[in-house]
Amino acid sequence: MEFKVGDKVVVKTLWTERASVITEITKAGNIRVEGEKGMFNKEGIKKPAAQRNALIHLITDGECEQKKAFEGRPIVHFEGNGESGNIFYIMARVSEVITDPIEFKELWEKVKQGTYTDALAAIRKKVNLIDDDGVY
User: Fold this and answer.
1) d(Cα 57, Cα 80) in Å, to the nearest integer?
2) Cβ contacts of residue 44 below 8 Å, gap of 6+?
3) Which of 23, 51, 60, 84 is deepest in the core (most CB within 10 A)?
4) Quick check: bond before 74 cis, omega within 30?
5) Using an 8 Å Cβ cutoff, are 75 and 18 in contact?
6) Which of 99, 84, 97 has the alpha carbon at shortest distance from 136?
């Protein structure tokens, strides 16, 4: 797969995905994506491996607009009946997509104040939170 500067891509982790654009390709072939720390290799895999596992793949202009139009917020998946339904687990995934520490801290304060359902509602105001089990 050949990537070029300006290509529209989806950055996917285990629980999140968001549309972005390639901003740089180094002479060594490493890829910088807007809004991402670190680089991806030629195959679109996040470097270094010690960071969260992430992949990129190309998308069309239409797919990019559709993802961004989904309220312009990143997507975070969880399983309401599983381990990933734990609020701390969800917030760890949210911290991957809300990179502003002040915004994340404000959200965390709201999450701590209410019930689990209240916490999910607060999180949904910032990200597209999708329960893959359909419970919440």
Assistant:
1) 27
2) 1, 3, 9, 31, 55, 56, 57
3) 84
4) no
5) yes
6) 84
CA quadruple 101, 76, 136, 103: dihedral, nearest 10: 10
| Cβ atoms 45, 55 nearer than 8 A | yes
Distance set, CA 37 to CA 32, 34, 96 (Å): 8, 9, 11
Phi, psi of 106 (to 5 degrees): -60, -40
CA dist 72 and 40 (Å) reads: 23
Q: At what angle do helices 87-97 and 101-113 cross, to 10 degrees?
A: 160
Dmax over Cα atoms in the chain, in whole Å?
Answer: 51
Q: pLDDT of 100-110, one tens digit each?
A: 999 999 999 99
Q: How far apart are CA 61 and CA 85, in angstroms?
A: 33
61-104 pLDDT tens trace: 877 776 666 646 788 889 989 888 899 999 999 998 888 999 99
Q: Residues of the chain with pLDDT > 70: what percent?
A: 88
Instruction: Give phi and psi for 74, each to the nearest 5.
Output: -65, 160
Q: What is the CA radius of gyration of the chain?
A: 16
